Amino acid sequence: MTFSIEHNLKFVTEFDETHPIGNQVKSMPQSDLIIILEGMLKDLVVPALGPILEEINARGSYAILKVAE
Predict the structure, then answer these.
(1) What is the 3-state secondary structure (H, E, C) of the chain?
(2) Phi/psi zone of residue 28: left (φ > 0), alpha (ψ -120 to 50 degrees), beta?
(3) What is the rounded distance in angstroms from the CA atom of residue 3 to the CA atom of residue 41?
């Protein structure tokens, strides 16, 4: 029998205000930016974490670490 505990990691994205994209991002609503950035993180980071999580979990006996969707 298992149970799950969902936890959160926080990331911060810093933009260069002098770059055209950074300047453009400043004008976007923060709620839209959060959705865009979280999607990008999920697409970029989750695949890279797969092998690391497999290695960590192979040595575990009492808990398994997974990425929540």
Answers:
(1) CCCCCCCCCCCCCCCCCCCHHHHHHHCCCHHHHHHHHHHHHHHHHHHHHHHHHHHHHHCCCCCCCCCCC
(2) beta
(3) 26
Query: How far is residue 44's CA from residue 40's CA, in Å, rounded to a whole number?
Result: 6
Tokens of 12: 């911060």
- Whole-number Å distance between alpha carbons of 12 and 53: 22
Domain residue ranges of the chain, discontinuous segments joined by +:
30-69
pTM of the predicted model as reported, rounded to 2 decimal places: 0.67
- Condensed to tens digits (0 to 9), the pLDDT of residues 4-46 reads 999 888 889 999 999 999 999 999 999 999 999 999 988 998 8
